[in-house]
Design the sequence.
């Protein structure tokens, strides 16, 4: 299959900051589809804002926002087939949402409740949310190996930040993906910061897409604020993977407009000007401008859609807040398929203590 | 910045200073003092430079000692531990930070297979005077992997020291000694009490002894043994028990490994009863080791079976349910009473 770009240095872009289409839409995308993209981006941004507010009022715990990076994960979600598998990281609200993870489950996860990882729909085989950076990428390589072994026409998308590319797990999975020609797509959300550490302190490489070359796989650099570019690159990589032509590394360049998490204060280590400039490039405005110009989206539609999103989010928040507590026995019952006899007594003690804790003793 | 500028004022090494600090500030002071006194001391880890560490333990160090001695590393724990081993064989004294203990596992190969063995493997030709610091323990409403207590893994490894402070004074003194120690030390900081109490400490650069327990409260009826954040629940339980006429002796183990069994045995010889309190999961841990040593070496002093108050044998529940997991003052008091009631 022909590589998507001439070199890992060429940044793929369709829609520029001003909302102008700088090249024809790729053949697989009809312009109407962009309305779906836009609507989901708005839903995710409004949800994200709500989640931050819930953290501030103590209704969920520490939360990792995806502000400014919505196009990466949403673009991935719009490129994946339902039979593919997602090995996500914590800023993948968009893809998870599109694969059927409910917003109230995301709140449950960030609200300190294990049931937030019980996915249904397309996500039923997806990996759970992953905190230890980059480890999901090696698991993704394992899943891809299983698909290959069984001659299944399925692929895995593994995501991470650019900080994660410094870990062995990233390199080891990337290397294996090359050697074994795995149906694996690794997407790096290069948002330029890993907590307080800038991208320049992670790698001296010209960019992250370049790392594909070292292991013999295609590396593609895309404008991660252009959902068309992201969706196109992932679509290309998945077609390749589905037809047995191997793995792809995609670097989606964005900017982390938010703090690292709600526990972080980014003003300590980065310049406000840098953030302000990055706002000029954010992903949603440009698509809105484009759709307006095309006559595909009106201010009325905007108002209605925002209202719809807010209503949906409110319902999901209600559902989250009204979830009954977990059964305390569950903390033992999922340790093994069957609880070994050795743990039985502790399970009883745990349940007894849970009763006391819940009654405030 | 305010706090730290104050902290680091008058840092003339010869001039000892009294300061009132929290545990995390005590860590910061010890690092500052060690870097000031020995140019071989370097600090490395994720976000330790400009950001001063996610808990601010390394605040102000980069500004004072520069980015060649205070290094923001790429995001890679294997690297942080491995590089520290290499630096240490050259006589540098790296103090590496692993951001949370839950992310230490990628570093374990270097700690167990190399740091712990370098001296032994080379019959003393090379050594590994490094310190690896990590915040540990639960109870702070954090996401998954930010709350575990897996000190037993390291205590199970000969060649490593495992040190856990439970107060600002001991954080300062023990960290200084850990940095000066010629062998590798895993220094675990109970983050739940990072800012719980303030203590007056004398910033004199003088360490506290390693491989030694600290008796925090004397008593005659029962011995309570604990370490880390749980020392606070233990002291509270002892205080409440005293009001009921039960006089507990409280020991902060502090150096988990090598273990100062003598202090514990001496105490149990006096009290005849012992409860061990640990936050970690119940089985195969440090409490089990202490209990086994009491059975082996103190059986004839004991008037009741040794009891443990611990977490449960589950992964640390996500924070909504972490309070069920955490040992409480009441758990300790009840166990003490049961132990005292044993004929
Ligand atoms: C193995 C491991 N080490 C450290 C951490 C703590 N940590 C959480 S997020 C993060 C930075 C991640 O940066 P990056 O990969 O660039 O992703 P971003 O958060 O910027 O999207 C760190 C150091 C962790 N979760 N896992």
Sequence:
């Amino acid at each position: 299959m022909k590589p998507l770009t001439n070199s890992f240095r060429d940044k793929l872009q369709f829609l520029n900051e001003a909302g102008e289409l700088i090249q024809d839409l790729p053949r697989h995308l009809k312009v109407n589809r962009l309305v779906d993209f836009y609507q989901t981006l708005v839903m995710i941004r409004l949800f994200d804002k709500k989640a931050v507010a819930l953290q501030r009022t103590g209704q969920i715990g520490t939360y990792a926002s995806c502000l400014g990076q919505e196009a990466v994960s949403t673009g991935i979600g719009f490129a994946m087939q339902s039979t593919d598998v997602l090995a996500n990281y914590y800023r993948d609200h968009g893809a998870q949402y599109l694969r059927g993870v409910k917003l109230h489950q995301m709140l449950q996860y960030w609200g300190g409740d294990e049931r937030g990882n019980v996915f249904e729909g397309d996500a039923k085989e997806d990996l759970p949310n992953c905190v230890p950076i980059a480890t999901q990428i090696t698991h993704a390589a394992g899943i891809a190996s299983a698909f290959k072994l069984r001659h299944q026409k399925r692929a895995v998308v593994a995501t991470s930040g650019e900080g994660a590319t410094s870990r062995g797990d990233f390199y080891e999975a990337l290397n294996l993906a090359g050697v074994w020609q795995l149906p694996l797509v690794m997407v790096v959300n290069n948002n330029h910061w890993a907590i307080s550490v800038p991208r320049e302190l992670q790698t001296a490489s010209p960019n992250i897409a370049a790392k594909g070359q070292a292991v013999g796989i295609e590396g593609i650099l895309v404008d991660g604020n252009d959902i068309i570019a992201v969706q196109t690159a992932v679509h290309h990589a998945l077609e390749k993977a589905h037809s047995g032509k191997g793995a792809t590394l995609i670097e989606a360049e964005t900017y982390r407009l938010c703090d690292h998490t709600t526990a972080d204060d980014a003003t300590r280590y980065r310049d406000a000007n840098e953030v302000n400039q990055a706002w000029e490039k954010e992903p949603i405005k440009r698509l809105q401008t484009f759709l307006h110009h095309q006559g595909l989206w009106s201010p009325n539609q905007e108002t209605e859609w925002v209202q719809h999103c807010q209503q949906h989010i409110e319902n999901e928040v209600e559902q989250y807040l009204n979830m009954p507590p977990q059964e305390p026995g569950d903390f033992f019952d999922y340790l093994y398929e069957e609880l070994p006899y050795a743990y039985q007594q502790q399970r009883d003690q745990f349940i007894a203590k849970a009763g006391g804790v819940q009654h405030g003793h | 910045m305010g706090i730290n500028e104050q902290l680091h004022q008058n840092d003339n090494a010869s001039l000892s200073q009294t300061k009132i600090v929290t545990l995390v500030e005590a860590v910061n002071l010890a690092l500052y003092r060690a870097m000031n006194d020995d140019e071989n001391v370097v600090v490395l880890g994720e976000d330790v430079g400009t950001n001063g560490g996610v808990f601010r333990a390394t605040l102000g160090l980069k500004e004072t000692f520069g980015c060649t001695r205070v290094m923001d590393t790429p995001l890679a724990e294997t690297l942080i531990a491995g590089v520290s081993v290499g630096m240490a064989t050259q006589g540098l004294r790296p103090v590496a930070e692993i951001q949370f203990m839950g992310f230490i596992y990628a570093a374990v190969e270097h700690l167990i297979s190399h740091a712990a063995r370098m001296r032994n493997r080379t019959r003393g030709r090379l050594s590994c005077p490094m310190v690896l610091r990590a915040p540990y323990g639960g109870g702070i409403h954090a996401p998954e992997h930010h709350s575990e207590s897996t000190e037993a893994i390291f205590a199970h490894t000969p060649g490593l020291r495992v040190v856990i402070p439970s107060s600002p004074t001991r954080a300062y003194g023990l960290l200084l000694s850990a940095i000066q120690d010629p062998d590798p030390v895993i220094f675990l900081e109970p983050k739940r009490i990072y800012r719980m109490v303030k203590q007056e400490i004398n910033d004199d650069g003088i360490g506290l002894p390693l491989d030694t327990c600290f008796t925090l409260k004397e008593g005659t009826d029962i011995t309570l043994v604990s370490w880390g954040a749980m020392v606070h629940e233990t002291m509270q339980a002892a205080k409440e028990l005293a009001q009921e006429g039960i006089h507990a002796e409280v020991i902060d183990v502090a150096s988990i490994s090598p273990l100062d069994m003598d202090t514990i045995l001496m105490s149990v010889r006096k009290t005849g009863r012992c409860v061990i309190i640990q936050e970690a999961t119940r089985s195969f841990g440090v409490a089990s080791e202490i209990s086994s040593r009491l059975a082996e070496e103190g059986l004839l002093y004991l008037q009741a079976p040794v009891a443990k108050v611990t977490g449960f044998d589950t992964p640390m529940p996500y924070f909504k349910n972490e309070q069920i997991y955490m040992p409480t003052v009441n758990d300790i008091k009840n166990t003490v009473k049961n132990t005292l009631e044993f004929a």
